[in-house]
Amino acid sequence: MTRFSCEERTTGGIPFLLDERAHRMGMETWLSIEYDKSPHVLWSGRTGSGKTVAAKLLLARSILLAPPELQPVELTVIDPKSDTDFDYLDGLTRFYRGDEAPQGFNNFFDAFIRRRDKQDLSANLKICYADEFASLINLIDDKKEKEAAQRKLALLLMLSRSRRFSVQLATQQPSAKLFGESGSASREQFGAVCLLGESGAETQAMLFDGDSRERIKAFGVIGGRGVGWLSVNGGIAQPVRVPMVGAMEKLNRVIYDNLAR
Ligand SMILES: Nc1ncnc2c1ncn2[C@@H]1O[C@H](COP(=O)(O)OP(=O)(O)OP(=O)(O)O)[C@@H](O)[C@H]1O
Ligand SMILES: [Mg+2]
User: Fold this and answer.
1) What's the CATH number where 181 sits?
2) Residue 116 maps to a domain
C-alpha cells in the first residue's frame, strides 16, 4: 500500500518504485528519481501493464515529497487519447486533452524558453506528463508542425535538465519514430526508463542495452501488471515493482489539487 507521508522525503530523491528482488525476499526497498540529475522519465509497456498508474504515482509523490527548492511543483497533464483515466481533470487549466494536446505541449515548451531566456526567474520544478506522446504527434496534420513538435521534445529532453523541467512520457510503442529525426538520441535522454509487464524482445531492444537484455532473459517471467524493468541513466536494468495504489481517489486528488492551483 503506498503512503503519502512526508517522512519519506530523502536527500533530493523521490522514492517511486520498489526493488523487486528485495520485495521477493520480503523487504521493502525504494528506488528514487533525482530530478536535478535525471529528470526525464519514459514509461513503456503493453496496454494494461500499469504505465498510467505508475506515472500518476510518481507525479503525486513528486508533488508531495519534492524538496523545498523544487517547490511548488507545477504539473501539466496532456492526454491526447482522451482516456477515461483523466476525466476527473476536465476543465482545469494545465490539463489538455484530445485536440488541445499539441497546444498544451507548446505552452510547456514556451514556459521552458521563458525560463531559459531569464524572463521567468522562478526555479521550481515543472513537469509535463504526456500519456502516449505518439497520439499527440498523430493529432497534428501538418507535417512541418509535426516535426516542430518532435524538435521541441528533443530540445526539452536535451536542454532542460539544469532548468528543472521534467518530461515524463508513457507509451506502448517506444520506437525511435516517435521522436522524429533525433530518434534514439532523444530516447537516450531519459534518465529513467521503465518497461512494465511482459514484453517482447523488440521492445526490450528499443529501451535497454545488451547486458540488460541478457539479465531480463535470465530472470525469466517477471509477472504481470505493475512489475517490470528499470534502467537509470543508461545503467543495467533492474527488476522493479510499482507500489499498489489502494486509494486511487487520494492519488487523483493530489494531481487535481496541483492542477487547480
Ligand atoms: N499500481 C497499481 N495499483 C493498483 N491498481 C493498478 C496498479 N497498476 C495498474 N492498476 C490497475 O490496472 C489498470 C490498468 O493500468 P493502467 O491504466 O496504468 O495501464 P496502462 O499501461 O496505462 O494501459 P494503456 O496502455 O491501455 O493506457 C488500472 O486502471 C488499475 O485498475
Ligand atoms: Mg494508460
Assistant:
1) 3.40.50.300
2) yes
Residue 135, domain member (yes or no): yes
Question: If you measure from the C-alpha of residue 85 to the centroid of ligand 1, how many angstroms do you get, rounded to a whole number?
Answer: 9
Q: How far apart are CA 130 and CA 42, in angstroms?
A: 10
Give pLDDT tens digits for 195-253: 999 999 999 999 999 999 999 999 998 888 999 999 999 999 999 999 999 999 999 99
Which residues on adjacent β-strands are paired with residue 165? 126
* Local structure of 244: helix, strand or coil: coil
Any domain includes 99: yes
* Residue 126, phi then psi, degrees to nearest 5: -115, 125
Partnered with residue 96 across adjacent β-strands are 78
- Does 33 fall in a domain? no
In the chain the beta strands, taken as DSSP E runs, fall at: 13-19, 30-34, 41-45, 74-79, 95-97, 126-131, 165-171, 192-196, 227-232, 238-241
Domain that holds residue 113: 38-185+196-222+244-260
- Spacing, Cα 163 to ligand 1 middle (Å): 31
Nearest ligand to the C-alpha atom of residue 44? 1
Tally of structural domains, the chain: 1
